[in-house]
Predict the structure.
Amino acid sequence: MELKTLSQMIGDLEEDQVLEMLNTFVSSNPSQEDAQKVVNACQEGMGIVGELFEKGEYFVGDLIFAGELLTAAMDVLKLVMDSSGEEKTGTIVLGTAHGDLHDISKNIFKSMAQAAGFEVYDLEIDQSASEFVEKVKEVQLDIVGMSGVLTLAIDAMKDTVEALVEAGLRNEVKVIIRGNPVTKESCEHIGADAFTTNAAEGVKICQGWVKQYVRC
């Protein structure tokens, strides 16, 4: 398989060609090493999507489609991936802030994070501070990710960070936030470690944290 071609086809959102190529690859009974190389190529393709979005050549609808394409690609590759022995990049708990019922942003980030090797615990939409805290207590995590489209999500995210502080858990995780109302100023107000409006950029930030052994 030509890995660069696969990456470019994902970047170009060529769904039929991508799935045809992956199904042919899976039918060849590939090694785990080769399968991982293909997963990496898919990740690089999503990087292309992120770059085109930053340039204004792709829009939100394209990101949604890219997330769906990536999910379909990973479903095909799971057939030849040994998940029992797969080393995870890191662990993220992800959810939409309390009062916000939008999940498109969260789902795009989730797909990209999983493709990058993260284990993701998805709390879904409209999650209270206590629900984030309980999941952090339950699972040894690296990162808490929150998203929101509505302005009210800012206060809900701040409540969650404060709840992590009160529970004595804040120093154990990094916090990343994303969504339309998020800015540098609101990030500082919330007490998060980083913010992003781009899913691909957000995954890169998370990868950087894990490489620096962010767990305290």
About this structure: The chain has two domains: 3-85, 90-211. The longest helix spans residues 32-54. Residues 90-211 form a domain with the Rossmann fold fold (CATH 3.40.50.280). The first strand starts at residue 90 and ends at 96.
